[in-house]
């Protein structure tokens, strides 16, 4: 990389008189850290990217098995409505690798009362866009369906300063029974407890619709639907993006290099080596980040350590198509919140995206909350047999064990993040899925924003 000499504005750098010769350190090479390093590189700012593990992408892990299945351990696609992941993909030349969930197999069931029900037609996430088709669906009792549609007549909340939980929001606007339908659709990506999940942090768009249109349903109906595909992915899986960014990084990039402590003027590695820096973008998850801040920033460390997590386990199952008596060309199913089973959802990966299983085979991901993986496996195999008629054992199984590793955005989350930021000097930024959004586009945006913020704090014209 040809690194331009940095031109410091008057007053900068802030912390170290030699800082203009020093790089910015990025801790962690998940999607947030890779995006931060990429942003610094685009600005000609020298950086060091330090990753504890032996690969890039963090939670994003796409693995090709010997028998040609493609297993995704976490994200399998990203939303296009938030443009940052797509933009990054284009910047690193991945236009031709982009794919979308298959429209011709877009069949999704809702499991309620032991029955696989068709999803209501014409939904935007969970919001019914017409009364008629929603009332014909069996996803709630007839009273529950009517009460949910009556949201259009519920006056908007007056006090908008106070945060509230997803559960409080649903019950207030759509009625208590609607929890059974909305929670699986809305809280899924957060694997969250709806009574704790912060509306302001997780779903500000619904609060905005409520305020602007007086109703989420009215607002959703008044806003035009995005044309074209809603999600994107890559032919060879989501790791394609992480690996493509990593391959284009020409700065100092080190794998197998865990950071032990972050200081105002650099970091200490677990081996004891110190690396001097003008600033740090810390993208390790909160439970790892908290101790690294403990020595130099005890107040911030305590606040970061207070951020809670949720657990989830995905069981990945491979079958031959012939093991199923029915057509398995469908995207999957969601389970009603009051169904009384541990399983939350199934994705039929082989039908949702091209290239995930060899011809004549079926690849499933079966999702659970915090559950022992062995128990999850037994329930997953049982449910696949019960609901889809699978005969015999799966060809193989794998786990994506994320117990204790999903950020829980609890009520008041945004205020808590503001307190963390205020407890750190502006050249030390925390960023990533623990703070401002778990989706890949949010992580990319968080990494790039944090990199820009450190550069701005240092008073450098990058
Ligand atoms: C089951 C599941 C399904 C998901 N599905 C989707 C989806 O479909 N779409 C979507 O958009 N999102 C999805 N997500 C969310 C998304 O995958 C994650 O939120 C995102 O990948 C997190 O990126 P990150 O960079 O913030 O953190 P991470 O990926 O956790 O990266 C942090 C990095 O920091 C490194 N690190 C930790 N400690 C240190 C240290 N001391 N020194 C140096 N490095 C360190 C780690 O090794 C890791 O590489 C899903 C998540 C899960 C669990």
Automatic annotation (TrEMBL):
Pathways per UniProt: Porphyrin-containing compound metabolism; protoheme biosynthesis
Q: Which reaction does it catalyse?
A: coproporphyrinogen III + 3 O2 = coproporphyrin III + 3 H2O2
Q: What are the EC numbers?
A: 1.3.3.15
Which cofactor is recorded for it? FAD
Q: What is its main location?
A: cytoplasm
UniProt KW keywords: Cytoplasm, FAD, Flavoprotein, Heme biosynthesis, Oxidoreductase, Transit peptide
Q: Please name the InterPro entries in this protein's record.
A: Amino_oxidase (IPR002937), FAD/NAD-bd_sf (IPR036188), Protoporphyrinogen_oxidase (IPR004572), Zeta_carotene_desat/Oxidored (IPR050464)
Biological processes annotated in GO? heme biosynthetic process
Q: Per the database record, which ranges form the Amine oxidase domain?
A: 31-454
| One example GO MF annotation | oxygen-dependent protoporphyrinogen oxidase activity
Q: Where in the cell is it found?
A: Cytoplasm
This entry carries the following GO cellular component terms, namely: cytoplasm
Concerning PANTHER family, the annotation shows: PROTOPORPHYRINOGEN OXIDASE
**Biological role stated in the UniProt entry:** Involved in coproporphyrin-dependent heme b biosynthesis. Catalyzes the oxidation of coproporphyrinogen III to coproporphyrin III.
Sorted alphabetically, which NCBIfam families does this protein's record hold?
Answer: proto_IX_ox
Family affiliation: Belongs to the protoporphyrinogen/coproporphyrinogen oxidase family. Coproporphyrinogen III oxidase subfamily.
What is the name of the protein in this document? Coproporphyrinogen III oxidase
User: What species is given as this protein's source?
Assistant: Deinococcus radiodurans (strain ATCC 13939 / DSM 20539 / JCM 16871 / CCUG 27074 / LMG 4051 / NBRC 15346 / NCIMB 9279 / VKM B-1422 / R1)
């Amino acid at each position: 990389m040809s690194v331009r000499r940095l031109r410091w504005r008057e007053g900068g750098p802030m912390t170290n008189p030699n800082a203009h010769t020093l790089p910015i350190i990025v801790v962690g090479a998940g999607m947030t850290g890779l995006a931060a390093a990429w942003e610094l590189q685009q600005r000609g700012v020298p950086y060091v990217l330090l990753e504890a593990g032996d690969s890039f992408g963090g939670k994003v892990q796409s693995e090709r098995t010997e028998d040609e299945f493609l297993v995704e351990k976490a994200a399998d696609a990203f939303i296009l409505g938030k443009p940052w992941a797509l933009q990054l993909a284009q910047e690193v030349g991945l236009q031709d690798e982009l794919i979308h969930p298959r429209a011709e197999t877009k069949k999704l069931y809702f499991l309620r009362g032991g029955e696989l029900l068709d999803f209501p037609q014409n939904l935007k996430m969970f919001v019914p866009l017409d009364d008629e088709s929603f009332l014909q669906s069996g996803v709630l009792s007839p009273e529950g369906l009517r009460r949910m549609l009556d949201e259009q007549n519920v006056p908007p909340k007056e006090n908008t300063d106070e945060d509230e939980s997803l559960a409080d929001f649903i019950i207030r606007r759509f009625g208590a029974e609607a929890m059974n339908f909305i929670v699986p659709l809305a809280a899924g990506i957060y694997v969250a407890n709806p009574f704790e999940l912060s509306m302001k942090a997780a779903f500000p768009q619904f609060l905005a619709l409520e305020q602007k249109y007086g109703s989420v349903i009215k607002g959703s109906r008044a806003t035009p639907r995005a044309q074209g595909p809603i999600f994107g992915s890559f032919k060879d899986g989501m790791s394609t993006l992480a690996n493509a960014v990593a391959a284009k990084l020409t700065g100092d990039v080190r794998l197998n290099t865990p950071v032990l402590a972050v200081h105002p003027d650099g970091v200490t590695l677990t081996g004891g080596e110190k690396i001097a820096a003008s600033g740090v973008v810390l993208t390790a998850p909160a439970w790892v980040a908290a101790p690294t801040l403990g020595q130099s920033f005890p107040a911030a460390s305590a606040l970061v350590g207070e951020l809670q997590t949720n657990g989830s386990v995905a069981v990945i199952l491979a079958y031959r198509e012939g093991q199923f008596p029915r057509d398995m060309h469908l995207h999957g199913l969601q389970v009603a919140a009051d169904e009384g089973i541990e399983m939350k959802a199934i994705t039929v990966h082989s039908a949702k995206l091209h290239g995930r299983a060899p011809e004549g085979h079926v690849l499933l991901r079966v999702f659970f909350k915090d559950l022992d993986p062995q128990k999850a496996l037994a329930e997953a195999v049982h449910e696949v047999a019960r609901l889809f008629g699978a005969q015999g054992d799966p060809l193989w199984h794998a786990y994506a064990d994320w117990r204790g590793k999903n950020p829980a955005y609890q009520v008041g989350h945004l205020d808590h993040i503001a307190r963390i930021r205020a407890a750190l000097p502006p050249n030390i930024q925390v960023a990533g899925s623990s703070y401002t959004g778990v989706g890949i586009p949010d992580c990319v945006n968080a990494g790039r924003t944090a990199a820009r913020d450190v550069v701005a704090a240092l008073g450098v014209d990058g």
